[in-house]
Amino acid sequence: SEIPVEVAPKVTVGQEASLSIPSIIDSPTVILKDSTGNVIPSKLESRDGKPKLVFTPPALGDYTAEIYDGPELKASVPVQSLAPKAQLGKPCDIILPVESGTENVRVVVTDPSGKEIPSNISRDNDGKLHLRCTPKQHGDFKTEIFSGPEKLGEIPISVIPKVN
């Protein structure tokens, strides 16, 4: 008999994600960890009657959702966090992983050569901050997020050639 192979769900860094939790346990405890074992903030919610782990991955890389029944580890689900994608020459809109209520937020977006490109941020009706910019070349861009002088984080943006 074959063992089913789970494909790691792919999520986008800085974007809220939800991961389906198998209904093998009545009231599971789920702990999300990054590749170095740090616990990542997450919450278990019921969506459409099914348990979902809701979280926002703060960085690129591999994560593991550990599912417990009491103290016993029942399953580990790998999760992969990827860079948001943007298309060359097209405006992109990326939600920034900034807690609502954070003041004086500014961003610095740099192209693959390290040159700053024009960008702006705006807050939507839900209080989420959106980054908007139009990349003029393909490659890996970097978005640094600040609140006043404090650097809150960094998000890579992978710019792909234009698709017709």
Descriptive notes:
The chain has 164 residues and is an all-beta fold. The protein has strands at residues 10-12, 17-20, 29-34, 39-40, 42-47, 50-55, 61-69, 72-82, 85-87, 92-95, 105-110, 116-117, 119-123, 129-133, 139-147, 150-160. The strands form four sheets. A five-stranded mixed sheet has the order 1-8-7-3-4, with no helix packed on it. The chain has a five-stranded mixed sheet with strand order 9-16-15-11-12, with no helix packed on it. A three-stranded antiparallel sheet has the order 2-6-5, with no helix packed on it. The chain is elongated and about 50 Å long. The protein starts with 9 loop residues before the first strand and ends with a strand. The model is unreliable at 1-6 (pLDDT under 50).
Present the secondary structure layout.
Elements: E1 10-12, E2 17-20, E3 29-34, E4 39-40, E5 42-47, E6 50-55, E7 61-69, E8 72-82, E9 85-87, E10 92-95, E11 105-110, E12 116-117, E13 119-123, E14 129-133, E15 139-147, E16 150-160
Parallel strand pairs: 1-8, 9-16
Antiparallel strand pairs: 2-6, 3-4, 3-7, 5-6, 7-8, 10-14, 11-12, 11-15, 13-14, 15-16
